[in-house]
Amino acid sequence: MYEPGKVTPMAQRFRGFLPVVVDVETGGFNPRTDALLEIAAVTLRMTDTGELEPDETVSTHVQPFEGANLEPKSLEVTGIDPWHPLRAARNEHDALSYVFQPVRRAVKDNSCTRAILVGHNASFDLSFVNAAVERSGIRRNPFHPFSYLDTVTLGALAYGQTVLARASRAAGLEWEQSEAHSAVYDTQMTARLFCEVVNRWEALHADANRYVSTEEEQ
């Protein structure tokens, strides 16, 4: 049973789900018609003292699916050239399989039931993952199909900021603007922000629990 401020195994902390941070770079905003171009994921782990921290990072470039739309403005923002000869991109099926393998392993290692996607504007990332899973015919999607944890909401709650860069800075994290819009960088920073918020919550309750215990002893 989870109690705020007390060390809790990962399997009991988030209703049996393992938070996995995901970021995608795309050729537009429509997951049905626009290309998935890059995906990165960061698994999380719980320390012996109950703090959440980033664990393994996995990422891959993705080949646009046949007939995929590529919006010039989206490519300008991400700086991705989908047809660059050195891009070493995988097709959607192989890309998802590559990313899902360590996610499934982390779910098993933490005795969780499945993964839950953590993202900044997480509904966007989950929609592209789900659409690619459907196109690829992958049967075992490790992520919950519609639930997610969003650092936009958490950043607003904890720091009064909804933009990833501003929320990260408010949390005391260094932000390199030149690295932004890389799936790996954005995922790692989102993971650090999520861990900061969760750990801050736990620390506040741990302090409150210690105060109550001291009062009861007096």
Plain-language structure description:
With 218 residues, the protein is an alpha/beta fold. The chain has helices at 10-13, 72-78, 92-109, 122-136, 151-159, 164-170, 183-217; strands at residues 17-26, 36-46, 52-61, 114-119, 143-150. It is globular, with a radius of gyration of 19 Å. The mean pLDDT is 94.
State the main characteristics.
218 residues; 7 helices
What is the H-and-E element order?
HEEEHHEHEHHH
Mean pLDDT: 94
For the largest sheet, list the strands in their spatial order: 3-2-1-4-5
What is the end-to-end distance?
28 Å
Summarize the structure.
The chain has 218 residues and is α/β, with parallel strands linked by helices. 44% of the residues lie in helices and 21% in strands.
Task: Please give the structural blueprint.
Elements lengths: L9 H4 L3 E10 L9 E11 L5 E10 L10 H7 L13 H18 L4 E6 L2 H15 L6 E8 H9 L4 H7 L12 H35 L1
Parallel strand pairs: 1-4, 4-5
Antiparallel strand pairs: 1-2, 2-3
